[in-house]
């Protein structure tokens, strides 16, 4: 699923840009999309096209790519099962590396039915691993209490110094769930915050690199999103420094529960 040495991209772009991304940054191996982004076909087709093209100078294969997509909504077991297969057919990727329930909306019964469909898809081999997104502690505990055959390996949610979500990330850590942090750059809203600029200057890095480094040092897998080649490369170039413990605490203390997207973690 990745490590701090790999760069993950939240893919919300056209297929043509996805193809360029694979060619731009040799370390980019993971692509994150979703049914609700309405681009699974474009993303999958671009990746497959690149792999079979002359641009693929590293001789990458499908097995070198990590492809994630997400269920649009939790409804019934049958609907989720059908939806997973439709995602696979649209992408033409052969299998889905990681399939997530995009949110806990829908209620307990629908969440658990949808998770059963993910489990069955994993056992069938069309999905390699399953996870959730935007799940709060109560949703995760509910899933564990149901005695699932397969536990979620990922919880993808908004996490950054201005919204640390400590209770959720701690629960995930205790239960072996990887936190994938989307919007790790706070959508650019805090790039000129005095603490961010001061620490970026101290570590001779860009504010975005500081935020990504903070995420990695907490053990999260950040999902930076950019359509600019230079920024994509810079976002992956964060191995040259570590934030010391004192400054990590300074960044942690910026928490103001800032939501830049949606926030289903407390829904029923």
Short note summarizing the structure:
The protein is of the alpha/beta class.
Describe the structure.
The chain has 268 residues and is an alpha/beta fold. Strands 1-2-3-4-5-6-7-8 form an eight-stranded parallel sheet. The protein has ten helices and eight strands.
What is the CA–CA distance across the termini?
A: 30 Å
Q: Structural class, from secondary structure content?
A: alpha/beta
Low-confidence stretches: 1-14
N-to-C SSE string, H for helix and E for strand: EHEHEHEHEHEHEHHEHH
Give a quick set of tags describing it:
268 residues, alpha/beta, eight-stranded parallel β-sheet, 10 helices, 15% strand, globular, disordered N terminus
SSE topology:
Elements: E1 7-10, H1 15-24, E2 28-32, H2 40-51, E3 66-71, H3 77-91, E4 96-101, H4 108-124, E5 127-133, H5 137-145, E6 154-158, H6 166-174, E7 178-182, H7 194-202, H8 207-217, E8 221-223, H9 229-235, H10 245-252
């Amino acid at each position: 699923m990745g490590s701090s040495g790999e760069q993950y991209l939240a893919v919300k772009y056209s297929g043509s840009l996805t193809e360029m991304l694979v060619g731009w940054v040799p370390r980019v191996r993971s692509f994150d999309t979703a049914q609700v982004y309405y681009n699974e076909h474009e993303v999958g087709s671009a990746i497959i096209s690149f792999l079979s093209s002359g641009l693929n100078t590293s001789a990458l294969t499908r097995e070198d790519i990590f492809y994630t997509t997400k269920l649009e909504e939790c409804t019934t077991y049958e609907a989720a099962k059908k939806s997973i297969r439709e995602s696979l057919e649209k992408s033409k990727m052969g299998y889905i590396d990681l399939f997530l329930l995009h949110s806990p909306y829908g209620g307990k019964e629908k969440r658990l039915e949808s998770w059963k469909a993910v489990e069955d898809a994993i056992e069938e081999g069309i999905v390699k691993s399953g996870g959730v997104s935007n799940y709060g502690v109560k949703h995760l505990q509910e899933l564990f209490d149901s005695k699932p055959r397969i536990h979620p390996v990922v919880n993808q949610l908004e996490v950054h110094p201005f919204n640390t979500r400590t209770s959720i990330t701690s629960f995930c850590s205790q239960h072996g769930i990887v936190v994938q942090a989307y919007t790790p750059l706070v959508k650019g809203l805090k790039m000129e915050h005095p603490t961010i600029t001061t620490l970026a200057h101290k570590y001779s890095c860009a504010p975005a690199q500081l935020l990504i480094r903070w995420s990695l040092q907490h053990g999260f897998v950040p999902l930076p999103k950019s359509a600019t080649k230079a920024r994509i490369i810079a976002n992956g170039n964060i191995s040259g420094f570590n934030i010391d413990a004192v400054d990590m605490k300074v960044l942690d203390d910026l928490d103001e529960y800032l939501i830049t997207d949606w926030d289903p973690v407390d829904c029923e």
